[in-house]
């Protein structure tokens, strides 16, 4: 069964770069442009991993992580933050909200795929 990964980022070009890497590695991809858009697209399908930006309009990444953790169906879905934010404070905030990993942009596709392989649900 193909694993589904959701990419949440307000940059279409970044979503495209991440999607190309993931699809190349055999994953299916679901894209959303911000936290609210992502929540609207979480309609009960199994999502094996969420990759989310931190700074987005409408609903930012940290608020999004907190919202996902409130959903019984997605409470255990691992979330990786992919962001330009490298401050320890933000990382702690992300971790406290429930993010499992933190990858700073710009990233190397192989580093992303290694992190994905470790986090993705079976």
UniProtKB/TrEMBL annotation:
Keyword Phosphoprotein tagged: yes
Gene3D superfamilies xrefs: 3.40.50.2300
Domain Response regulatory: 4-120
SMART domains reported for this sequence: REC (SM00448)
SUPFAM superfamilies (UniProt xref): CheY-like
Residues with the 4-aspartylphosphate modification: 53
InterPro entries membership: Bact_response_regulator (IPR050595), CheY-like_superfamily (IPR011006), Sig_transdc_resp-reg_receiver (IPR001789)
Statement: the UniProt record of this protein carries the keyword Phosphoprotein: yes
GO annotation, biological process: phosphorelay signal transduction system
Keywords: Phosphoprotein
Name of this protein: Two-component system, chemotaxis family, response regulator CheY
């Amino acid at each position: 069964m193909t694993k589904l990964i959701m990419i949440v980022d307000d940059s279409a070009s970044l979503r495209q770069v991440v999607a190309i890497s993931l699809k190349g590695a055999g994953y299916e991809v679901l894209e959303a442009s911000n936290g609210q858009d992502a929540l609207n697209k979480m309609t009960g399908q199994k999502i094996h991993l969420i990759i989310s930006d931190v700074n987005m309009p409408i609903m930012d990444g940290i608020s999004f992580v907190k919202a996902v953790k409130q959903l019984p169906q997605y409470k255990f879905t691992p979330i990786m933050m992919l962001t330009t934010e490298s401050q320890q404070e933000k990382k702690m905030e992300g971790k406290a909200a429930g993010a499992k990993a933190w990858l700073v942009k710009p990233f190397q596709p192989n580093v992303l795929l290694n992190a994905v392989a470790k986090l993705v649900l079976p």
